[in-house]
Amino acid sequence: MRMSRSVLLYLALAATVLLPAEAAAAATGHPAPQVTHAPPKYVIKTVSGISLPNNDGTFGVAKCPKDTVVLSGGAYIASFSVMTGINASFPAGQRSWEAVANNFSGAATTFSVYAVCARRPAGYEQLIGDIISNPAGDQDSGTENCRTGDVIIGGGVFDDDPGFSVGVASSYPGTSASWTAAVSNFSTRDSEFEVEAVCASPLPHYAIPSTSVSDPAGEQRGVIQDCKAPAVVLGGGNQSSNTTRLRIEVKATQPYPASGTSWKSGENNDTTASTTLTSYAICAT
């Protein structure tokens, strides 16, 4: 392990006393906004509209402000084609998140990169796992663990081959103290990748909820996992139930919405078999 380089239900009781926000919600028919408590200097930085030409792979970087570190990050490809995917998504130093997107859809598109930032938490550390061999025509996976007593707050995968016939199938918190990623190599040459984990000391209201959805053959699916108030999303990830078919790629893994209360996952299934997509949100205050 090398150190390194996320209709509120109201009972209509006559004796019920509503707080001002609840009263307004009852009057308008809309639920009261959830009250969240973010870590100090918490902010989500977004770089959008990055050009992604057809038959090409492009990288993008989102940078955190001074006096903060990157907790996690992700990317989103603005295409309805299943012939796009994320090649890599990982922390690029202490204050940046980098992603590489591939496009062989037949039409140009764009993508966005996200960085979830905050003041450096206690025990903050980025860890890079051993190099994992990813031969041509294979899908391989790996896991990087936090140090004993720490928790996972984000993670990603760095692919040593920028070729656009290699794609991330899964990248997610395997446990509360580890990050797991799977990469599909549907090219004609061998490749390698590394799994990266971002860890910290345990945080208040820490939890990793998840939600799953079916992704039929030849289709694109997305699913959003919410954090429970008062927590915000520190990180998150996508897990595909597919472990052998090569043309399943991450389309989106991103903090959502702009306020950072959820994690959005998306998957392109360019195969002949259905799979299950699971979205994880890493939540804390």
Structural notes for this entry:
The longest helix is centred in the first third of the chain and has 9 residues, at 20-28. This protein has a single domain, classed as Sandwich (Jelly Rolls). The protein is globular. The strands form 5 sheets. A 6-stranded antiparallel sheet has the order 2-7-4-18-19-16, with no helix packed on it. The model is unreliable at 1-32 (pLDDT under 50). The protein is built from 1 helix and 20 strands. With 285 residues, it is mostly beta strands.
Topology, element by element:
Blueprint: E1 2-3, H1 20-28, E2 43-52, E3 56-63, E4 69-77, E5 84-91, E6 96-103, E7 109-118, E8 125-128, E9 132-134, E10 138-145, E11 151-159, E12 166-175, E13 178-185, E14 191-200, E15 210-215, E16 220-226, E17 232-240, E18 248-256, E19 262-269, E20 275-284
Antiparallel strand pairs: 1-8, 2-7, 3-6, 4-7, 4-18, 5-6, 8-14, 9-14, 10-13, 11-14, 12-13, 15-20, 16-19, 17-20, 18-19
Name the features.
single chain; 285 residues; globular; 55% strand; disordered N terminus; Jelly Rolls; six-stranded antiparallel β-sheet; mainly beta; five-stranded antiparallel β-sheet
